Amino acid sequence: MIVLVVGRDASLNEGIVAALEDLGVDWTLQFCADATSALTFAQANKVDVMLCELRPVGMEGTALLDRIRGHHPEAARIMLLDESEESQAMKALGSAHRILNKPLRAEELLEAVESIDELREILSSPELQRSIGRIDKLPPPPKLYLALTRALDDPDVSPASLATLIQQDPAMAAKVLRLCNSAYFSGGRTISDIRTAVIRLGQQILRRMVLATEVFSDSTNSAVDRDAMRQRALLSSQLAARLLAGSSAELASTAALLAEVGMLLPGVQYLNKEGELEGDGPHYAEAGAYLLGMWGLPMPIVEAVASHHQPSRSKARGFWVGGAVHVARALIAKQPIDEEYLRQVSMLDRLPAWQKLADDILDQGQD
């Protein structure tokens, strides 16, 4: 594992190396103080993970990450931002898979790199990694969704702060107001400001809506019906949230929303209008999971997306997120259910009730 770190503050390097050694890490860390030396190193060596500050000597950090991607498209790209640069997070996510705090802490670096390692263990197919690596332009991370998630990690975040984030994207702000003024949410009262809309919708619905809008707004695969995919995703998300309890319900809801995201990528197998697989290359589920893992989404969501078409492959014991996503997607898309899997996890007797839930959600979705 070769980790390239590019930044002006070389005084921290020895401390990071020592801390990682104390944690039992045996990576090769290469520190470069400027963009030129970083590019020289990347041209001559394999790079697995690249960390870069916003403005290293010689080049903007986003431009440097894009150059490194040209040499090593499979490398994970991470931007380092300090508190004064937080307003640049949305822009940085156009080139970086993830963002870490600056000054860099060994524990945060370890967590980020280990999650990338875990992703590559789960999705270790050389064909998959080559296929993703050959794509010139992956869909960018959902910037507003990730910014909302970061904001909501603060228990004291205010509706006004969330509204400020939403207002950075006028198209998204319009969609939030449209949803909030629908009959389901409005209660007969017209909402005209984003702050009130945020309060009315609630955090979970707001996040799901933003995520669905961003992820399905563009596709490099012209054969995919994005509108139909978005509708399946939203309805599957509603159903999956009702199949599990507590925090697992939110994980299942998000995973179901993203289950088909791999079909946005070129060169993968995807579902045609008849629900049959078409195309060559890796299955869209594994390709989508790899993309989500590089974006830094939680590993339970990544694994559930990877295994939703074959739930028995999931490493989770019993009926959990991957199983809920499988059931929700199959019932909403009217595709076969893996009844043998449900029998193995002692949930087959629940299928008739789940089918009724799915029918009710489908009826509501057509209203």
TrEMBL record:
Domain Response regulatory: 2-117
PROSITE patterns listed in its UniProt record: HDOD, RESPONSE_REGULATORY
Pfam families with a match to the protein in the record: HDOD (PF08668), Response_reg (PF00072)
HDOD domain ranges (all copies): 138-311
Top-level taxon of origin: Bacteria
Protein name: Response regulator
Organism classification: Bacteria, Pseudomonadati, Pseudomonadota, Gammaproteobacteria, Lysobacterales
